[in-house]
Design goal:
The complex is a heterodimer of chains A (138) and B (321).
Chain A: H1 2-7, E1 11-17, H2 24-35, E2 39-47, H3 49-58, E3 63-68, H4 73-86, E4 94-98, H5 102-110, E5 115-117, H6 123-137
Parallel strand pairs in A: 1-2, 1-3, 3-4, 4-5
Chain B: H1 3-15, H2 19-30, H3 37-43, E1 51-56, H4 63-76, E2 81-87, E3 96-98, E4 113-119, H5 131-140, E5 145-149, E6 166-171, E7 192-195, H6 203-216, E8 226-229, H7 238-255, H8 257-288, H9 290-300, H10 306-320
Parallel strand pairs in B: 1-5, 1-6, 2-4, 2-5, 6-7, 7-8
Classes of the chains: A alpha/beta (138), B alpha/beta (321).
Chain lengths: 138, 321
């Protein structure tokens, strides 16, 4: 099992959809996933849902992690899930973190987001979920 | 479905522009999945058409930004462009952060561009073990120009020469005096020198030093490397850079040296694949064999010389083959 993990690391796309310019959280998560042995494709700021889906497909990632603080999560996050499905990539799970009210988080999960994280989430929790989601996909 | 019956389907999908199939195949090649072999064999005869341009040089000189500028230029000319961008893997966790994609504006929304980030996965030499094969898959998928960005390279990360048909060494002003340019390694593999960030003071001096270097000896294999200056972020000089690459590709065809380059590439690749397997065998042997463990102990206790231990192991490996 350990050997397999070494030969095929989990690949994760980290991106920020929308227009807010605060990428510290995304960078902290990217670094934590790197330190957990994952290959993190860091796409950075101001990505459209189309950009994110294109990148997820070209990079053949096992997981997409989105960070959003602008308040536009209800518009942008379900769109990423929908576009992945439309492009035949519904098997790639999407998780998100940011300032997202509980009620919105519930609705986002119903729309196909696999996990939603708020401020104060431990990095261990994110790493564990990332591993689980990526493993179930493979 | 068995891998065998699937292989022609995957090969056809890749050739027909199925980006998901291509991306998955790349992952399998990176992961050294033996099941892809029939697919690779089916695709190999359809490769060898692309110009594979390597961009190498120290970290922070602007390789990704130059790639971005080249992609824009080439797309303008209607060329389909593939990009393979390599970044280092952590020697501690094995993980990596691949951040080259961020600079490439057309990495998405354009079916004529395919960008793939690769982690070096412990391979030295400035690229990953699978970079050559991945570049070839993009070739098979119909990308006419493939830009390969190495990790921020040192003086001896020269493997790009075994992958690219044209190697561009990217530098910036004030990396050192002209004696640096005389040193062996990186400066020897350039088909084209590119002094980027040419808006900074010292760019002309750096270009002059390089031109002098190029003029010091006879041209290698009949080719004298071109020296261009660029400002990737403003797009200045990027057309000159591409003209220099084009001139080198033209030289390869006209002088008949392309065949030599292909042979060099083939040789490097075959040797690399064999080395990878031998290395795997050797590591497995070292982990498992109690006799080898005993040798390690003796060397660690300084009761045996490391060369004597290596002789032992080498002889026993040859016998077991």
């Amino acid at each position: 099992m350990a050997r397999r993990a070494r030969s095929s690391p989990i690949r994760v796309l980290i991106a920020k959809p929308g227009l807010d310019g605060h990428d510290r959280g995304a960078k902290v998560v990217a670094r934590a996933l790197r330190d957990a042995g994952m290959e993190v494709i860091y796409a950075g700021l101001r990505q459209t849902p189309e950009d994110i889906v294109d990148a997820a497909i070209q990079e053949d990632v096992d997981l997409v992690g989105l960070s959003i603080l602008s308040g536009a999560h209800m518009a942008l996050l379900p769109k990423v899930v929908r576009l992945l499905k439309k492009r035949g990539a519904a098997d790639i799970p999407v998780i998100a973190g940011g300032i997202i009210p509980d009620e919105d988080a519930r609705r986002l999960k119903r729309s196909g987001l696999r996990a939603i994280y708020g401020p104060g989430t431990s990095l261990e929790a994110i790493v564990t979920t990332a591993r689980q989601l990526a493993r179930h996909r493979a | 479905m068995s891998p065998k019956s699937r292989s022609p389907t995957t090969a056809r999908a890749v050739q027909n522009g199925d980006r998901r199939a291509l991306a998955r195949l790349i992952s399998q090649v990176e992961n050294r999945d033996p099941a892809v072999r029939p697919t690779l064999e089916a695709l190999y005869p359809h490769t060898g058409h692309a110009r594979i341009v390597g961009l190498t040089g120290p970290l922070g000189v602007g390789k990704s930004s130059l790639i971005n500028a080249l992609v824009n230029l080439l797309r303008h000319e209607g060329e389909r462009v593939g990009v393979v961008a390599v970044d280092p893997s952590s020697p501690f966790s094995g993980g990596s952060v691949l951040g080259d994609r961020i600079r490439i504006e057309r990495a998405s929304g354009d079916d004529g561009v395919f960008v793939r980030s690769m982690a070096s996965r412990g391979h030295a030499g400035g690229v990953a073990a699978a970079t050559c094969e991945v570049a070839r898959l993009l070739d098979a998928a119909g990308y006419g120009v493939i830009l390969v960005e190495t990790v921020g390279s040192g003086q001896v990360d020269l493997e790009i020469r075994g992958i690219a048909t044209t190697s561009v060494v990217v530098l910036v002003p004030h990396l050192g005096d002209e004696v640096q340019t005389l040193k062996a390694g990186l400066f020897e593999i350039a088909d084209v020198f590119c002094v980027n960030k040419s808006d900074l003071p010292g760019a002309e001096e750096a270009a002059k030093d390089l031109r002098e270097l190029v003029g010091l000896g006879p041209p290698r294999g009949g080719w004298r490397p071109a020296v261009v200056t660029t400002t990737a972020l403003g797009g200045t000089g990027v057309a000159d850079l591409w003209r220099a690459v084009d001139a080198h590709e033209g030289f390869l065809d006209e002088s008949g040296t392309r065949h030599e380059v292909e042979r060099r590439r083939a040789r490097e690749e075959i040797l690399g694949l064999v080395r990878e397997r031998l290395d795997g065998d050797l590591s497995a042997r070292i982990e498992r064999d109690p006799e080898v463990q005993a040798l390690i102990d003796r060397v660690a206790e300084h009761s045996m010389d490391p060369r004597a231990a290596a002789d032992h192991l080498y002889r026993s490996l040859r016998r077991s083959r």
